Amino acid sequence: MKTMIILFKAEFKRYWTLGIILVSLFLVALGSISPIMMTSAGMFKKLSQLSNASEGFISFFVLLIFYGGIVSADIKSGWLRTLLTRAVTRQQYIVTKMLVALTATAIVYFLAFIIPAIFVSFDAKIMLVYDWSDTLVSLTYIFAQFSLLIVLSTLVSCGMPGAFNGVIVYAWMILSQMIGFLVDKLYWDVPWAVVLKDYIFPSGFSDAMRAVAQSLPFPYTETLWGLAALTFFLSLTFFSINKVVVDVGSE
Amino acid sequence: MDNIPAISAQHLSKTYKQLFKPSVEALRDVSFFINEGEVVGLIGPNGAGKSTLMRILLGFLPANAGEVKLFGEDPESMHARKLIGYQADTQFRAKNVTVKSFLHFHAELIGIPNAKDEIENLLRIFELTDACKRTLSALSKGMRQKLELVLAFLGSPKLVFLDEPTAALDPPSVFVLRDFLAEKKKTGITVLFSSHHLTEVESVCDRVIFISNGQLAEDTSLKGLEPGYLEQLFRKNLGIRSVVS
Known about the structure:
By secondary structure, chain A is mainly α.
């Protein structure tokens, strides 16, 4: 545990270069505009709806900024080799790396959520309902979705360089939407198609987010599918990090 | 513990498989022991498999066959890891991290008491004191190599792997390293020293392992041998004749 805390502090510090800080601030500013406009236009009436507003936008960009080459960049720079030589296990490294990525995303996301929430609270014309419990549930699903993206990016990054890593996860996101739509509309009665879609292109957490936003009954099934997919990809990631060639040498 | 070798390599083989290209056999049935306190040179021509062998010994690269033990333990076990240091031939770069914070971070990870004194001492020996506030990406090639050496010896490991440690060093730094290794040798440290500089190997090592075409061609003690012996060994094993003759 002590090793992971030391590693977390060092990795977190490494993340925030001046360039990343500036890009993140720009992302927060852009991510705040749409929720403010939509709430002002009366499209969002509850805080839980506001919490969902910037999730898609933030996920799309943090994928490249924070998760691109999450492992492969460390292999290329030799950083991973210096860690594993002496005191860190591959498992400690990968868990810490994913936690740091999640924390960095949380910071950007919270700013993009809180700034519009504070902004609209000053506008007397907007009557926003502060549904705290639904907002908390919604935030849990949002972070579960971020975790899934981080795990996927880490898995891909174990075998692919940075740029390809991002491209593959983007492709996965697009395919996930397309295949999800096809299976839901056309092949919903084909069991293998449904199981394959829910494992390879899981939408459990995003479906659950939608259910909470629409005040539907608690999405137990969607949550379980989301957790199953997260566990599946997490297991693959742990398997992959053990196979990574750490020291890519001259020979 | 006394009878357990520092390094035990048994029947190591490694083949690199490549897409659309023929496979490359980097190591073939390589076996040897290195006892505690020995300083062993690992020599051979380019592409002989020296770095591959080192990476397998460190547990960074899986062998296709064979077994490695460091002090009787798996190279990836935390117990073995705490006992080793490694200076690689590929150099790391990291933005946003200074030399000082990098070394203190590693000292904290290893759990070194009085890390400040040890770091300052190693920085002074390898003439990096003035560079301690620079970021790693701002260091020259030679300075990075020195930093790799500082990192390899940080925490007084019992076994150190040095992969071409003098490749980017200027002559005064090579002399410093040679003297430093001579001092360390007295403390009973085990060193595996890979190099193309035969005079360095002769001056530092007790024994030499010669790798050629992925095979162990020679495993000889250097004690009592004439200077220039390694050149003859090279010529003999690779069939190189004098250009003049």
